[in-house]
Amino acid sequence: MSVNWSAVASDTAHRPWPAPDRSWVMTMSWLDLLFAHWRVPVELIADQLPAGLEVDTFEGEAWVGVVPFWMDNVTGRFLPNVPGLSRFPELNVRTYVTAGGEKPGVWFLSLDADQRLAVWGARTFFDLPYVRADMDCRKDDEGWIHYRSHRTDDRMAPGIFEGRYRGVGEPYLSQPGTLEAWLTERYCLYAADDDGRVGRGEIQHVPWPLRRAEAEIQVNTVADAHGYRFEGEPRLHFVDRIDVVGWMLDRLG
User: Are 239 and 210 in contact (CB under 8 A)?
Assistant: First the structure.
């Protein structure tokens, strides 16, 4: 489908802070996305963060999310989509941080992708811990997303996600102050280079059109490399689609 990216970039009334006053540089769409979140010990996250970042918590609790989805429309501003390069499955392991208590954002523990050039570009230009994986994602006639990801990159310990998930019910917007708003409504990411220098990358999209979700997860070891062992049932949300524009990193400090 055709996307009006200028409209995406300008629909900013819901943002917790203003969008950058310079031009955005890239586009992407996130499709058939599952948020699966588990509580984790605050100190486990804190021990893995670079200087300048602090764990963000909700009512004193920290969370880590496993997020499988499709990437689409991945390209630079004014550049066309390239068949075979602009669409691919991706799976993120993420948690939540602030920088000096400001601009709560996402910290990625890993980003698995089945696209070699995307992995190289994200590592090179955005300092993100992308790694290669052998992945498969398909939707059946009942709306189930059947998802498989086997990490194959020797820059990170192996990790596997296998299962299926789907959205349930009609889309809705989360309410300010709720856990689901805290988990999802974030408009920046943080990343660090090999020297530990932290950067912040702003993103822009409409408020998340969430749906309730159900999931059957058979294998989930994608966070084992970071010492996480998830316990109990996850908090689940599903998103059919959201279109996103992004800016280059701003180096902090």
Answer: yes
Residues 24 and 249: their CA atoms lie apart, in Å, by 11
Q: How would you write the pLDDT of the chain (253 residues) with one tens digit per residue?
A: 789 999 999 999 999 999 999 999 999 999 999 999 999 999 999 999 999 999 999 999 999 999 999 999 999 887 777 777 789 999 999 999 999 999 999 999 999 999 998 899 899 999 999 999 999 999 999 999 999 999 999 999 999 999 999 999 999 999 999 999 999 999 999 999 999 999 999 999 999 999 999 999 999 999 999 988 898 899 999 999 999 999 999 999 7
Cα dihedral: 7, 8, 9, 12 (round 10): 100
Say if pTM beats, i.e. exceeds, 0.90. yes
What CA–CA distance (Å, rounded) separates 26 from 96? 23
What domains are defined for the chain? Answer: 5-251 (2.40.400.10)
SS3 158: coil
183 SS3 class? helix
